[in-house]
Specification:
The structure holds two protein chains of two kinds.
Chain A (H helix, E strand, L loop, with lengths): L8 H4 L4 H39 L5 H5 L2 E2 L4 E2 L2 H32 L4 H14 L3 H15 L6 H25 L3 H9 L4 H9 L4 H17 L2 H4 L26 H10 L7 H30 L4
Antiparallel strand pairs in A: 1-2
Chain B lengths: L2 H7 L3 E12 L2 E12 L3 E5 L6 H8 L9 E9 L2 E2 L6 H6 L1 E4 L10 H11 L5 H14 L3 H4 L12 H13 L5 E5 L7 H14 L4 E5 L3 H7 L2 E6 L2 E7 H4 L7 H7 L5
Parallel strand pairs in B: 3-8, 3-9, 6-7, 7-8
Antiparallel strand pairs in B: 1-2, 1-4, 4-5, 9-10
Helix pairs in contact in B: 4-5, 4-7, 5-7
Classes of the chains: A mainly alpha, B alpha/beta.
Chain lengths: 305, 261
C-alpha cells in the first residue's frame, strides 16, 4: 500500500483536461467514420432507386420473357438474359472445379519451392490482368487456335480464365481458415493427406469455398469486354420460354453487352428499356450475392469449433 | 526402488535412437543424441523450451516431414526397423499414439473422433468400431461422462474432456508406443491427476514417452527420465537418480530443483 499520496474517490474520477480532449476526439471520430460509411451506402441506394423509378414503366414478366423487337427499340430481354445465364454457368462449371482443385494442391500438398512460387505469382498476376487483355487472349486461344469460333463456349472459357485466379485465392483463404492442428491430429492418426482433406479440411471449408465461387457469378455476369469478341453478339433471336434455346457452340446475346448496345448504338429506344436492362442485371447479381450470404449464414450456424 | 523391474525391461529396447541430428534450415534442433527406450516403461523427457523434445517425437512418427526445410541425420529404429525405411509410413504412425500439448477435438462427433483412425485404416464393421470406441473412451476415463452423447461434437467438450478424447483417439489404433507432449498444459489439475492414473494403467500394455514441463510429473510417473537442453541429451537415467541429490550432471540438478540458469 502506498500511503504517501492520499487521493479521495471524488478526485480520482474527476475529468482532467486530457480526459476531456480524448472524449471529444472519440466523438468526432465516431461521427466521421459513420458519415464515410453512409457515403458508401447512399450512392448504391440512389442508383437502384433511380433505375427502378425510370424502369418501372417497362418492368413486367413479359419484359423478362420476350425477345427484343423492332431492331431492339422495344420488346424484352429474354435472349440476353438467358445468354448471360449460359455464359456464367458454363464458365463456372469450368473455373470452379479447376480453381478449387488447384487451390487444394497449392495449399495442402505443394512444398515451398520454385514451382509453387511461380504458380502463386502467376495466380496473383492473372487476377490483376485487365479484362480486355483476357478478351484478346480468348480470341487467340479459344476462338482461333482451338477453333471454337465465336461461341458461348469460347466466351465462357475466356470468363473462366478471368475468374480462375480469384477462385483460387478465395479457396486458399477458406482452406487456411481450417486450423493446422486438425491436420496434424489426422496425420498423427495415420491418415494420408487426401483422407485428411476429404474428411476434415473440405467439409469444414466448403462454405467459404462456395461463397468465393458464387461471388464470381456477379463478376462473370457483369463483364462486357471478355465476351464481346469471343461469343456475344448484338442481336440474336431465340425461342422464347425455352431454357435450352442456345447451343453452346453458337453465339449468344448477353445483358451487359445488350445494355451497352441499346444505350449507345441504337437510336430511339423506348425510354425505360435501358434502365430495365440495368435493373435486371443488378437484381440478378444482388440475388446471387444474397444467396451466397444466406448460404454462409446457414453454414455458420453449423460451425463445429 | 524398482531397479529390479527396470533391469529386466532393459533387455528389450523398442526404440533405438542413434546419433540423431535434426536441423530446421541452418538452425540445429537436435545435436546427435542417442538413447534407447525399453518396452513397457514410462520414459519422462524433461527440459526447457527449445530443447528439442517435440522435434524428437516428430522424428519418431515421421510427421516432421510435414515441416518444410528440415534435415534428419542418424537413425531411429522402432522394433529394430529404421523408421525412414518403412514402406508404410501410415502404418508406422498408427503404431505410435500421439497426444499434443493443446487438446484437439476434430470437428466430428465424439464417436467419429475415436473411430477416425480405425476407419482410415480400413475398419468398416459397425460392431467392431463400437467396441473400439467404448474400449478407448473407457481407457481414457471419459466413457462415463460421454456415453449418452456420443453423437455430439467433440469440439464442444471442455478442455480437459477434449484432452482425454485426444488420448482415447491416440489409443484407437492400438499403438505400441504412446507419446504425450506436455499433455497437461491446458488441463486442470484434477483432470491431470486422472490422466496420470490412466497412464499408470496403460504402462502394462504399452511404452509411454512422456514429454513434460512439470518435472514433478516425470518424478511421479516415469521409470526413467531424460533431461534435454538446447538439442543435447544431457543425461538419461532412472528417475530416482535424476531426482537424487547427485545426478550425473550439475545442469540436471539445477533444472530439477528449479535453480536453473
Amino acid at each position: 500500500m502506498n500511503t504517501d499520496i492520499q487521493v479521495s474517490p471524488q478526485e480520482m474520477f474527476t475529468e482532467t483536461p486530457i480526459d476531456r480532449q480524448k472524449r471529444r476526439i472519440e466523438g468526432i471520430m465516431r461521427v466521421f467514420l459513420l458519415v464515410i460509411t453512409s457515403m458508401m451506402i447512399l450512392p448504391l441506394l440512389l442508383i437502384i432507386g433511380y433505375l427502378l423509378y425510370k424502369a418501372l414503366p417497362v418492368l413486367s414478366f413479359e419484359f423478362l420473357f420476350t425477345n427484343p423487337k423492332d431492331n431492339m427499340r422495344a420488346g424484352g430481354l429474354w435472349a440476353p438474359f438467358l445468354g448471360t445465364i449460359y455464359l456464367v454457368v458454363v464458365s463456372l462449371l469450368v473455373s470452379a472445379p479447376i480453381g478449387v482443385f488447384a487451390a487444394v494442391y497449392l495449399n495442402e500438398y505443394a512444398r515451398e519451392n520454385w514451382f509453387t512460387r511461380i504458380t502463386n505469382l502467376a495466380v496473383v498476376n492473372l487476377a490483376g490482368v485487365p479484362s480486355i487483355v483476357h478478351a484478346l487472349f480468348g480470341v487467340g486461344a479459344f476462338v482461333l487456335f482451338a477453333g471454337l469460333g465465336e461461341s458461348i463456349l469460347a466466351a465462357s472459357l475466356t470468363l473462366a480464365i478471368m475468374t480462375l485466379p480469384v477462385i483460387i485465392a478465395s479457396t486458399t483463404e477458406a482452406l487456411k481458415a481450417v486450423p493446422m492442428s486438425f491436420r496434424e491430429a489426422c496425420w498423427n492418426l495415420g491418415a494420408t493427406r487426401w483422407q485428411t482433406i476429404r474428411r476434415i479440411v473440405l467439409p469444414n471449408s466448403i462454405s467459404g469455398i462456395l461463397t468465393g465461387v458464387i461471388l464470381q457469378v456477379s463478376r462473370a455476369a457483369g463483364e462486357t469486354a471478355p465476351i464481346m469478341f469471343t461469343g456475344a453478339v448484338f442481336y440474336k433471336a431465340i425461342a422464347e420460354g425455352n431454357l435450352f434455346a442456345y447451343n453452346i457452340m453458337e453465339q449468344c446475346m448477353a445483358l451487359s453487352l445488350h445494355l451497352f448496345t441499346i444505350s449507345t448504338q441504337v437510336p430511339d429506344v423506348t425510354e425505360g428499356i435501358p434502365y430495365g436492362t440495368a435493373i435486371v442485371l443488378v437484381a440478378t447479381v444482388l440475388l446471387v450475392n444474397a444467396a451466397s450470404i444466406a448460404l454462409r449464414v446457414y453454414l455458420r450456424t453449423r460451425k463445429k469449433w | 526402488m524398482n531397479t529390479n523391474s527396470d533391469r529386466r525391461s532393459h533387455t528389450a529396447p523398442i526404440i533405438e535412437i542413434n546419433d540423431l541430428t535434426v536441423r530446421y534450415g541452418d538452425k540445429p534442433a537436435l545435436n546427435g543424441i542417442s538413447f534407447d527406450v525399453y518396452k513397457n516403461e514410462i520414459l519422462g523427457i524433461i527440459g526447457p523450451a527449445q530443447s528439442g523434445k517435440t522435434t524428437l517425437l516428430k522424428v519418431i512418427n515421421r510427421t516432421l516431414e510435414f515441416t518444410a526445410g528440415t534435415t534428419v541425420e542418424g537413425s531411429v529404429k522402432l522394433d529394430g526397423v529404421d523408421v525412414n525405411t518403412v514402406g508404410d509410413v501410415y502404418g508406422l504412425r498408427r503404431k505410435i499414439g500421439m497426444v499434443l500439448p493443446l487438446p484437439v477435438g476434430l470437428p466430428l462427433s465424439i464417436y467419429d473422433n475415436v473411430a477416425f483412425a480405425p476407419r482410415t485404416a480400413g475398419v468398416r464393421a459397425k460392431s467392431e468400431l463400437d467396441e473400439i470406441v467404448e474400449r478407448c473412451l473407457q481407457q481414457a476415463a471419459l466413457w462415463d461422462e460421454v456415453k449418452d452423447r456420443l453423437n455430439t461434437l467433440g469440439t464442444k467438450l471442455s478442455g480437459g474432456q477434449q484432452q482425454r478424447l485426444t488420448i482415447a483417439r491416440a489409443l484407437s489404433h492400438q499403438p505400441e508406443i504412446l507419446c504425450l507432449d506436455e499433455f497437461s498444459i491446458a488441463v486442470d489439475p484434477i483432470t491431470t491427476m486422472r490422466i496420470e492414473d490412466v497412464l499408470k494403467e496403460l504402462r502394462a500394455e504399452m511404452t509411454i514417452l512422456l514429454v513434460t514441463n512439470l518435472v514433478q510429473q516425470a518424478k511421479r510417473l516415469a521409470n526413467r527420465t531424460a533431461f534435454m537442453l538446447n538439442g543435447d541429451l544431457v543425461e538419461i537415467d532412472t528417475t530416482d537418480v535424476i531426482f537424487s541429490d547427485s545426478p550425473g550432471s550439475q545442469a540436471t540438478y539445477d533444472y530439477v530443483n528449479g535453480t536453473f540458469g
